[in-house]
Amino acid sequence: MGNVWIDGVGEISLVRSRRARRITLTVRPTGLVRLTVPCGVSRARALAFAETKVAWIASARQRVAARQAAVPPLPPEAERERIEELRRAARVDLPPRVERIARMFGFSYGRITIRASRTKWGSCSFRNDLSLSLYLMALPERLRDYVIVHELCHTVHHDHSPRFHALVDRCLGGQERALDRELKSYVIRR
User: pTM for the complete prediction?
Assistant: First the structure.
């Protein structure tokens, strides 16, 4: 649908989605505001909704900025040391965590690889091999578990279909949306 301007907010990205059941607003770590609109909802109604949420958008942008400011960039040598520290911690923490969660829900998986991925928290191959970012160690435990559950559910559904999301939500006790929203407020910094 493109980008639109809303007074008090600025430019927002309007996205029409067949999967969306209601109008949703999200503020990305970059500060970009995204308005997701179900197919049956008019553009005018979507914009009217966004205009009622100006105060919420400002508050969400402040929260995102505060989280980013809380993690100052490190000098290159310190950054390398931090990455190695995260890698060691990830090798100790993540494989047993995956094993425990897989056993709890009856999932089976192949290999686990720990990578310094800055673009994805995790992924699952068609052979059910899991790749997890060492930067998961910078997240709260509940979000690490969320990412692991998400990737393990891909061993059953190799897509993001409604059945996949229903399985994730069932494993998380109905908390998938809330955890996903919280995870999106974190960004892997360079």
Answer: 0.64
- Cα 134 from Cα 147, distance rounded (Å): 12
Domains of the chain: 2-69 (no CATH), 76-183 (3.30.2010.10)
Rounded distance between C-alpha atoms, residue 22 and residue 34, angstroms? 13
Lateral strand order in the sheet of 2-6:
2-6, 10-17, 33-38, 24-27
3-state DSSP call for residue 36? strand
Alpha-carbon span 161 to 142, nearest angstrom: 23
50: left (phi over 0), alpha (psi -120 to 50) or beta: alpha
DSSP letter for 14, please.
Answer: E
Q: What is the pLDDT of residues 18-28, one digit of tens each?
A: 888 899 998 88
Looking at residue 61, what DSSP letter applies? H
DSSP helix/strand/coil, 12: strand
